[in-house]
């Protein structure tokens, strides 16, 4: 039972710890007015006892989600209503979750069986239902603005599709996502508006942040300065539910109560940050492995203490083609540092991304985390080896999780390790048929929902303007911002 006098938890901006909001306010705002990300103070993260953690064994995903998330939402959503929302979000027939033993102490947690066959479904479904609840209670409307490097857009669009109080704008990089991923956004219609952007994910992310922060534009189009909110990894409503995965993982493996390894393929770092929060709550995670692709800014920082944003590099793990992860600001904050994007004071446009003006505790980060880059050829090698040895078909992102774990164990344990290790598999291999076929010579079956969408009509809005080409890669241009605004006006004002 939730204690009736339990105080609401408040969340601060990573750019101003004196600026505090409730979960509802953070959810509705999306991003703080100073462009900071909402975060919970480390010493205020609620704890779960080991007895409660052990009692999770055999419980459903929605029941474990309630045990974890009710600690954050006490006083904001009534207990009965929260249970209903979570039971609806995580219905076994809609989003089954499996933890499969593969070999020795290695397990895979398959977060791949939801409506869009991606782990993003879990956070998106929680986000959509809680947002709709709060909007309904207040009689408000919101436009959810999202940038996607692959799976986020489809998951959020599916979760928000048809909701009465929500419209959804999705920005995706043209040519950098699979056809299946694109169609999960472009075939829905109704309240889902998918924008193909000339540029990479970082350009899309910058465009989403620009629209989110432009209160004047929201007032002009909707007569409501607060109409825009976010469902990206920058949304607290996407971050908190990702703390549930590792609790569920532990409930599905043998042992692990003395410590287990979580290997997390990482792009925008929400998945990994959720696991960091779970560890702080009391979950016995002995090591969090943060596997990235050839965009190795974070492992390089962890090793050297120097953070340098470089042009993004294409990779088979397309949802992880991220050179400057948004949630890194939260991770730096968690370990006592401060990171921000330097902006033009007049336009709000990012001048220099990833500025660290207060270093985090690197020694502690290194104790808790291990990060490594997996090369493009290693993606295919890993998929091939795992299929040959175990008959398991991985997608490129799961391959990063597997290979990162192998590298960690080889470097620190050799063949002698006695703790369970759980690899997060984050997308159905059928979403990446060309990559899987290249790796193992077999084309995986398309998931049924994707099969259906192949023949459906698409609705795409295109941002054709060129991004800026700089030494640090592509950057959002003023022309792109103006073109996006023009097309958003046309959608919502009929111009």
Model description:
It contains 20 helices and 18 strands. It has 495 residues and is α/β, with parallel strands linked by helices. The strands form 5 sheets. It has a 6-stranded mixed beta sheet with strand order 4-5-15-10-11-14, sandwiched between helices. It has a 5-stranded parallel beta sheet with strand order 9-6-7-8-16, sandwiched between helices. Strands 2-1-3 form a 3-stranded antiparallel beta sheet. Strand 1 (11-13) and strand 2 form a beta hairpin. Helix 16 (376-390) crosses helix 17. The longest helix has 19 residues, at 120-138.
SSE layout:
Elements: E1 11-13, E2 16-21, H1 23-29, E3 38-39, H2 50-54, H3 61-73, H4 79-89, E4 98-103, E5 106-110, H5 120-138, E6 142-147, H6 151-160, E7 166-173, H7 179-186, E8 192-197, H8 201-213, H9 215-222, E9 228-230, H10 236-239, H11 244-251, E10 260-265, H12 270-281, E11 285-292, H13 297-304, H14 328-334, E12 338-343, E13 350-358, H15 362-368, E14 369-373, H16 376-390, H17 396-412, E15 421-425, H18 433-440, H19 448-453, E16 460-463, E17 468-470, E18 473-475, H20 478-493
Helix pairs in contact: 3-4, 4-5, 5-6, 6-7, 16-17, 16-18
Described by the principal axes of the CA atoms, the overall outline is globular
Please estimate the helix content: 40-55%
**How many individual β-strands?**
18
Across the major sheet, the strand order is 4-5-15-10-11-14
Count helical runs. Answer: 20
Largest beta-sheet characterization: 6 strands, mixed
Using only C-alpha atoms, the radius of gyration works out to 21 Å
Overall SS class: alpha/beta
Name the beta content range.
15-25%
Distance between the termini: 52 Å
Low-pLDDT stretches are: 1-5
- Overall pLDDT: 93
